[in-house]
Amino acid sequence: MNNNSKTRILTEGAVMIAMATILSYIKIFELPYGGSITLEMVPLIIMSCRHDTQWGLLTALVHGLLQMIIGIQNVFYCPTLLSQLGCILLDYLLGFGVLGLAGAVSRALKGGIRGIITGCCFACVLRYACSFLSGVLLWAEYTPEGTSPAFYSAVYNGSYMLPDTIIVVIVCLLLYKLNPKLYKA
């Protein structure tokens, strides 16, 4: 890969991060303790599908880092340094970073509609797993009395991640139908 190709991919990644950041502010639905339904995952998944896994992961990780900086107050709700590190990893770096794996799954299935659906679902399930673990390990104190932290985390995070996943899959499929070349570099 020559320098012009790398520069083009980096520029494209920056544009996708900017789009994802803007879309993160357009909330279809927002929960009181964090979590919302947005289209911010769409540009990250498209970037992941267009380029190698390394570029998808890099773009998604940088977006996660940017989201952490924007929402840094959330990290400081955690009372200890260890829980703050856990928040940074689970809610931001891994939470968004896993979206960079959508393209690897899509490519393994030779792309197309089936690849896009599976890649989106795989990445969203991993993101849900990060949010679930964060809820159990870091945010259990917000669990209503008498409720299992695991059950509460599963339901709470599922209440926005499931609709978010469905919407992201639909939007990614519509974009593929309108312009399949969007998913190929």
Q: Can you describe this structure in just a few lines?
A:
This protein is globular.
Describe the structure.
- The chain has 185 residues and is mainly alpha-helical.
- It is 72% helix and 2% strand.
- It contains eight helices and two strands.
- The protein has helices spanning 3-24, 41-50, 53-70, 72-75, 81-97, 102-108, 112-137, 149-178; strands spanning 29-30, 36-37.
- The protein starts with a helix and ends in a 7-residue tail after the last helix.
Report the radius of gyration as a whole number of Å.
Answer: 17 Å
Q: Give the integer mean of the pLDDT values.
A: 96
- The outline comes out as globular
The end-to-end distance, rounded to whole angstroms, is 13 Å
**Biggest sheet, in brief?**
2 strands, antiparallel
Structural class: mainly alpha
Question: Layout of SSEs?
Answer:
Elements (H helix, E strand, L loop, with lengths): L2 H22 L4 E2 L5 E2 L3 H10 L2 H18 L1 H4 L5 H17 L4 H7 L3 H26 L11 H30 L7
Antiparallel strand pairs: 1-2
